[in-house]
């Protein structure tokens, strides 16, 4: 219980909740495990559960009718996805799949709605937490609309570094497991444009690229490309 409560307290959506409210949520959280590349839910599925990552990594995808897909987000320990299921049963807006073995906490939407009815302060604080996330997303979108491809790619790499550090990576030589195509999609650029810029970074000694992974030797240098 203490471990689950501590994990919940690090999630932005729940950051406004007190210890007692977090304990209520911890009691209805169910451990789940997903194998590498397993689909956790698909776009169009009924939205009935949200997930909090304890270990491992997953990504959100939007799929096109012609079979193509784009990466919308990557999730690691402490991240939550499918959180709108706490409020309604609308269809999923994206597909989420595990990238490696994922340990997660699953919280049923109906359990959260019952808690919000029984403990109104939980509902108020959840709205505060979601409002902060929405504001941050709006600010990020506004910022990206004025950024160059290079700036957007550098910012994605900085975010991936921060996620890796939260999982125990050091200050330098940070290993990030991600494809070049996913980096481009997260940055809202073409793969060719992202590839050209990452080649520049590699020649400068900022990073080294491998198959499905990037080692960022000088994370601090990336901020010099963000404006």
- Gross CATH architecture of the largest domain: Sandwich
Unreliable spans: none
**Main beta-sheet annotation:** 4 strands, antiparallel
Q: State the shape.
A: globular
Structural domain count: 2
Order of helices and strands: HHEEEEEEEEHHHEHHEEH
CATH superfamily of the largest domain: Jelly Rolls
Strand segment tally: 11
Percent strand equals 15-25%
3D architecture notes:
With about 230 residues, the protein is of the alpha+beta class. The protein has 2 domains: about 1-145, Jelly Rolls, CATH 2.60.120.10; about 150-225, Orthogonal Bundle (Arc Repressor Mutant, subunit A). About 40% of the residues lie in helices and about 25% in strands. The strands form 3 sheets. The protein has a 4-stranded antiparallel sheet with strand order 1-8-3-6. The chain has a 4-stranded antiparallel sheet with strand order 2-7-4-5. A 3-stranded antiparallel sheet has the order 9-11-10. Helix 5 (about 150-165) packs across helix 6 (about 180-185) and helix 6 (about 180-185) packs across helix 7 (about 190-205). The model has no long low-confidence stretch (mean pLDDT about 85). One of its GO terms (cellular component) is cytosol. InterPro entries: cNMP-bd_CS, cNMP-bd_dom, cNMP-bd_dom_sf, Env_Response_Regulators, HTH_CRP, RmlC-like_jellyroll, WH-like_DNA-bd_sf, WH_DNA-bd_sf. This is Crp/Fnr family transcriptional regulator. One of its GO terms (molecular function) is DNA binding.
């Amino acid at each position: 219980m203490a471990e689950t409560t501590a994990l919940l307290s690090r999630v932005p959506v729940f950051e406004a909740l007190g210890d007692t409210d977090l304990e209520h949520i911890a009691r209805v959280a169910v451990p789940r495990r997903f194998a590498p590349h397993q689909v956790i839910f698909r776009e169009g599925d009924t939205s009935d559960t949200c997930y909090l990552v304890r270990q491992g990594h997953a990504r959100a995808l939007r799929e096109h009718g012609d079979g193509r897909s784009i990466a919308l987000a990557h999730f690691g320990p402490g991240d939550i996805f499918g959180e709108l299921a706490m409020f309604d049963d609308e269809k999923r807006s994206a597909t989420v799949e595990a990238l490696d073995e994922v340990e997660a906490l699953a919280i049923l939407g109906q359990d959260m709605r019952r808690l919000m009815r029984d403990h109104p302060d939980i509902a108020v604080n959840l709205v505060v937490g979601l409002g902060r996330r929405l504001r941050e997303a709006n600010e990020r979108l506004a910022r990206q609309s004025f950024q160059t491809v290079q700036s957007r790619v550098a910012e994605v790499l900085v975010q991936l570094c921060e996620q890796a550090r939260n999982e125990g990576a050091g200050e330098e030589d940070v290993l990030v497991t991600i494809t070049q195509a996913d980096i481009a999609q997260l940055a809202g650029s073409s793969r060719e444009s992202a590839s050209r810029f990452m080649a520049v970074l590699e020649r400068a000694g900022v990073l080294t690229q491998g198959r499905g992974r990037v080692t960022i030797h000088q994370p601090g240098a990336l901020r010099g490309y963000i404006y």
